[in-house]
Amino acid sequence: MLIGVHCSISGGLVNAPLEAQSLSCSTYQIFTRSSRSWKTPELKSEQVELFKRKNKELGFSNLVTHLPYLPNFANPDKEIYSNSQHNLIEEAKRCDILEVSNLVVHIGSHKGLGSKKGILTVQSHLEKFIQSEFKVNICLEISAGSKNSVGSTIEELQQIRDGLSETSQIKICLDTAHAFASGYDFRNKEAVDTFTDEFESLIGFKNLAVIHVNDSKVDVGGKVDRHEHLGKGYIGMQGLQNLLRHKKIVDLPIPRILETPRDTKEADKINLKILSEIVNGPWQI
Ligand SMILES: [Zn+2]
Ligand SMILES: [Zn+2]
Asked: Is residue 211 in some structural domain?
């Protein structure tokens, strides 16, 4: 079972695998640069080699990077479009250099222009990625459904993928807090069955590449993205277990990454332990 947290690269890329190891993770997620800047500092070859060597040595594979938060792939505004495009291509290059398999992206907001226009804009970005022939997968993250956001439902994610010339590297990242805030009530087993059936028929589980496991500070349908410690939010242990131990999800060989708050030194350790119990047992309803 691939379980991990978001690790820090401050002090050098190699610190991420070391941090993951110290937490007994089997995989991890990083930002390869500042999450709140457009700047793309160059990767130093020494650091890259050290990073790759450490990952091999410690047996880490199926790694995840998260794109910075600034790009918006659903807004056709010229400047935003070109900055976002540049950012995506630069990050995809970095992922290939670092041998990272999955690049998670927030899709963005159509800023009132309507979801149709937003989806077309997202598709145009993805076509450029597809034509560039990278190795990394793009993982479109389901959004919490805040005003004007694109991609908060399975149908919308499907609409984005369906209009593309090639979808083999266009995957999905399921964030449990986002999906719950968007309206999928994982506390209800029947709702989880409906969710997984719909995902299977519209997108297919072979296209689910990453799960972000977070509880939610807002109730179902709250349409806001607020992560909470596992078991302390509205989804709760039962809801998380309904989803993560669902027969269509439990055996998927994909990373399950925590993005829970880090308000105490022990927070990651505690959430990892809970996650491991949720997916492997012994935690039982
Ligand atoms: Zn997430
Ligand atoms: Zn989030």
From this structure: yes
Split into its structural domains, the chain has a count of 1
285 lies in some domain? no
- Kindly give the distance from the C-alpha atom of residue 160 to the centroid of ligand 2, in angstroms, as a whole number: 20
pLDDT tens profile 187-196: 999 999 999 9
Range of the domain at 38: 3-280
How far is ligand 1, taken at its centre, from the CA of residue 79, in Å? Answer: 26
Judge whether 37 lies within some domain: yes
Query: Does some domain include residue 161?
Result: yes
Q: Which amino acid is at 166?
A: E
At 235-248, the pLDDT tens digits run 999 999 999 999 99
The chain-wide mean pLDDT, for the chain, equals 96
